[in-house]
Amino acid sequence: MKREGADSARGDGEDEKDSSRGAERRGISRLALPAALVLALVAACGFGLLWWRERSDQQLRTSAEDAATRMVTDLATYSHEDFEANIARVKSSATPEFSDNYTEVAESLRELVVNGKGESTAEIAHAAVESISDEEAVVLVFLDQHILNVAVPDGRQDVSRMVVTLQRHDGEWKLQDAQTV
């Protein structure tokens, strides 16, 4: 009988260990669900932040590309009939430095364009952002320009590539530089 008691005592100890392990498992499983939820929430916030940054970067790139397209179109489109309107249009979307330089160049070409009855219509074939930050963008622009004047009455097609530098002023892109390459 002693054996039975000993076996019985041993069995009780094992039962206690089993119930202790069960309680530990229940405690762990009770902590696992909240921990998993917190981990999932942190991961969701991290992915959400990455998505938001990517979306913001893409919006910035798109706005710079659109601005460069519009500005190069304005630069390369002109008419002898209203040369002043073209100058004003370009200057309205330019930095003060570019505006001053453009005014000098346009004034030196005014007589040639007006007397030569010059007209140009520009179309952007393609534009792509080469580099961008919150304050500056460099955009590559492929330009098709149809030019008419007294020397070329039937017109001619010019194809150009330009590197356009934009600066952000008060949340708007302004033309800082445009170079034909």
UniProtKB/TrEMBL annotation:
Main location: membrane
GO cellular component, one term: membrane
Domain of life where this protein originates: Bacteria
Protein source organism: Dietzia timorensis
Protein name: Mce associated membrane protein
PANTHER family named in the record: OUTER MEMBRANE PROTEIN RV1973
Cellular compartment(s): Membrane
Keyword Membrane: yes
Record field: transmembrane: 31-52
Keywords: Membrane, Transmembrane, Transmembrane helix
Lineage: Bacteria, Bacillati, Actinomycetota, Actinomycetes, Mycobacteriales
Chain positions covered by the region annotation Disordered: 1-25
